[in-house]
Amino acid sequence: MKLGVVGGAGLLGSTSAFLAGMKGYLEEIKLLDVKENLVKNHVMDMAQAIYSSSDTKVTFAQYKDLSDCGAILITASLPERKVANRLEYLWDNMNIIKPVCESIRENCPHQPVIINATNPVDIFNYIIWKELGWDRKKIVGFNGNDTYRLKWAASIVTGKPFSDIDGFAIGEHGNGQINLYDKMTCGGEPLGLTGDEIEKIESITANFFSEMNALNSGRTSGWTSAVNIESIIEAVAKDSGRVLECSAVLEGEYGLKDVSLGIPVAVGAEGIKEYRLPELTEEQAQRLEKVSEAMKEIIREARSA
Ligand SMILES: NC(=O)c1ccc[n+]([C@@H]2O[C@H](COP(=O)([O-])OP(=O)(O)OC[C@H]3O[C@@H](n4cnc5c(N)ncnc54)[C@H](O)[C@@H]3O)[C@@H](O)[C@H]2O)c1
To answer: Are 71 and 138 in contact (CB under 8 A)?
Structure first.
């Protein structure tokens, strides 16, 4: 599979491309960015580095070159800035995402899978779906850091190995993240978290973004995002059906529609293969509905502006 990266000179685009390239399952990675010299620098450097491990080619791209890509990763955005909430990035990136969609629609009539990371990711995932007008299953939003951080925090708090822990966060990539503690397992058995452990994990996952953002470094979580974005790229390239938390446009799942939220989905060559909906408690379902209403309101505002 050939992968296009729109925003390929930036942190997420370049780190994800590099990780996928080093693993060797892609035929070609095509980097596109408005910063043309910087992206050409990445192409020269990355192509050379990846040569040590794989045959994946790395090339400079314009939109016309993306027509044969099986997937396009969108990470285009204004530079990171200090915010209280990822939703504040909406107006930064609105004027970027719409023209990006227009160019993809014009140049990619075969409708590749779109992996969108640009924040606020759930809102843009929905907007991208509307702008492109393709099957909703083709539009896969990157929310995987939430589930990853839930497992990471659970491992730190319980002392159990990260690789044995399973579970999912769902909902918004932001304050409306819902950690499904009751479904978490370790080595296939219920993890059985205590109230005290849940409180600690909740605090770690809820505060991670604000702690990192308070550093005002102009940089976000590039390495963690690369690890989790690469999982989506690999699932598409290999048509693996791996179940990952992604932002998905909902049309009746959990009784919700006209919104995109993080849920576990099986990912393959055509995007979302299956919606794998864990059964929710009444409290979890109510929280999800509340998050959905809040997201819909923002989508309405964004689309009518
Ligand atoms: N979904 C998640 O879990 C998650 C995690 C971390 C970051 N993010 C988001 O991902 C996005 C990218 O983050 P980053 O750290 O890579 O940012 P970055 O500033 O390092 O990179 C963004 C790149 O987009 C490019 N760009 C801007 N406008 C463009 C356009 N019209 N066409 C093509 N390229 C364009 C910029 O030149 C830049 O190279 C941000 O919105 C960030 O908030 C999401």
So the answer is: no
- Whether ligand 1 lies within 6 angstroms of the CB of 118 is answered as yes
Atom 2 of ligand 1, residue of closest alpha carbon: 117
The CA distance from 184 to 133, in Å, is 36
Q: Measured from the CB, is residue 249 less than 6 Å from ligand 1? A: no
Q: Is the CB of 142 under 6 A from ligand 1?
A: yes
Structure tokens at 15: 């780190």
Answer yes or no: is the C-beta of 9 below 6 A from any ligand 1 atom: yes
Place of tokens 């919104």: 259
Angle between helices 222-238 and 144-158 (to 10 degrees): 120
Nearest CA to ligand 1 atom 19: 79
Atom number, ligand 1, closest to the C-alpha of residue 228:
3
161: three-class secondary structure by DSSP: coil
pLDDT in tens, the chain (305 residues): 999 999 999 999 999 999 999 999 999 999 999 999 999 999 999 999 999 999 999 999 999 999 999 999 999 999 988 888 888 899 999 999 999 999 999 999 999 999 999 999 999 999 999 999 999 999 999 999 999 999 999 999 999 999 999 999 999 999 999 999 999 999 999 999 999 999 999 999 999 999 999 999 999 999 999 999 999 999 999 999 999 999 999 999 999 999 999 999 999 999 999 999 999 999 999 999 999 999 999 999 998 88
Does the global pTM surpass 0.85? yes
